[in-house]
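User: I'll paste a sequence; please echo it back and then give the predicted structure.

Assistant: Echoing your sequence first, then the prediction.
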Amino acid sequence: MLFDALLILFPLFLGYLIPLSSPPLLKLINQLLGKLVYLILALMGVGLANVEGLFAQLATLGRISGTLLGCISVANLLALWWLDQRRRHTHSVTSLPAPSKWRMMAESMKLALVVIAGFALGSQFAAVRALPVDRFSEWALMLLLLLIGIQMRNFGMSLRQILLNRWGLQIALCVLLSSWAGALVASLLLPLSATQALALASSFGWYSLSGILVADKLGPLMGSAAFLNDLGRELLAILLIPVLMRRHPSSAIGYSGATALDFTLPVIQRSGGVDVVPIAVVSGFVLSLLGPILVLGFLAWPS
């Protein structure tokens, strides 16, 4: 199983080694990433349609994702509050209007609708259920990781810039350790092993990847639980960032997790000003880089 995890991670590292400076090509990669995410989530929905007795397990799905989200969120916010207390740092709010929370939440919910659409197709059409969904998902996942590696390499951040931003690194470390602590508590309340709970917690809000990786190893039901856990985190982050930024900037940035690098970055910038952007980018970059490695590492660990 460890070999399988390393095999899946290989495209990520391969992509990271590819320097690319052409703006049209980078734009094309961004567009392909979006389409691949939709494709893989739709395949995950089709896979759900093949789960026997799914409706009897919906309560379990809600319990797993809800318990994980609650335990990890509490642990994250407590740890990040402690970091803010240590720094004794307050930050003024910019006068720029914040982007529409409802519009951003709607963008997130589109992904959930794609999973539902895939499930509906799989439920209605036997030919769709007969497709080799696992094989298609694995191929699409490898291509996705290759493109993500290329994108991260060309984000414009040097190792020196990352290592010198102590605040961003402290936030990332707090999120990582507190997410693990919350996951271990959740594993005591759920029918999950400690390593499975740690795997589901180690995507740090990167819902478009967590569901795919977990579903590939633990099946579509657990993949859906991982997806819902991280989707819920992002939706809460959109609501919490403007509220927390003035007095608790570490909490506002850190609770965004890996999405501080991309999706929630506009909310962070609008709420905290341009000087918090490098902190958010470093924190989000580190968590995004570690996410797939840690998720697959824990999934490869014997339960």
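The chain has a mean pLDDT of 80. The two ends are 12 Å apart (CA to CA).
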